[in-house]
Amino acid sequence: MRQVHHVSMNEIYTDGNNVETTERYTRYLTPEQPLKFDANKWRYHYMPDVLTFKGDMLHQQQQHRNQNSQHLNFEFPVDVRPSSDMLRMLRENGFELGCVEMYAIEGTELAQLTEKEVVLKQISVAQIEDYFKIFNELSASYGQAYIEEANHHIQNEIAHGQGQLEYYVAYDGHCPVGILNLIQGEQTLELDGFAVHTDYQRKGYGTRIQAQVGKLAGKRTVVLVADSEDTAKEMYIKQGYTYLHYRYSALLELK
């Protein structure tokens, strides 16, 4: 296994507007997507103490209320676990603690996973319904308002060629079996929003899609971020991905 190109977790794509960077944190606010948790958050550069965090909660709540974001979302520094006092305070205030993990693999290695192919098509407005068919089904738990907001945002980005994300649908013949988003870099290809339609899961399509991503990456490093409790990360490890970093976060949905 080749040594993968080192990538910092702070370098990966964030689908949100950076409105402020201070010594302590970077703040993202995205009024056009108020319901998207990841587009409206604070990302700490170093771990705050409990008293400082409580003040930050009030500050963020005011900012989010002003744009109709009904949540608080804080990301903690990379590879730092919150203290027991911080964890206790988060639980007492009803926060949901999350953790994501970053993985990487060389594109040439990923391309060798399987010879069975699928076709990856970067979508235009003409294929957008195929993308939404899968995206909307898998996003149902977030509610109809979120789905409508996300569809509008994605449609605008594709129609006007905006943003860094490239949206793809994976086809087996004429049948859409999965979706993914790619972020192109000089030395990396970042895989985001990767999902297989429920009718085609556990049938090898995830591996086939990954192999095609490896072919697109070529000699670049493929990077992705997965939820630490997501069973899909076990697949990534079996496919040869290398674990790099983790990041904790705290999410609270406001009433």
From TrEMBL:
It is an enzyme of class 2 (transferase). SUPFAM superfamilies: Acyl-CoA N-acyltransferases (Nat) (SSF55729). The lineage of its organism: Bacteria, Bacillati, Bacillota, Bacilli, Bacillales. This is GNAT family N-acetyltransferase. Its EC number is 2.3.1.-. Pfam families: Acetyltransf_7, DUF5613. GO terms for molecular function: acyltransferase activity. InterPro entries: Acyl_CoA_acyltransferase, DUF5613, GNAT_dom. Keywords: Acyltransferase, Transferase. Residues 118-255 form the N-acetyltransferase domain.
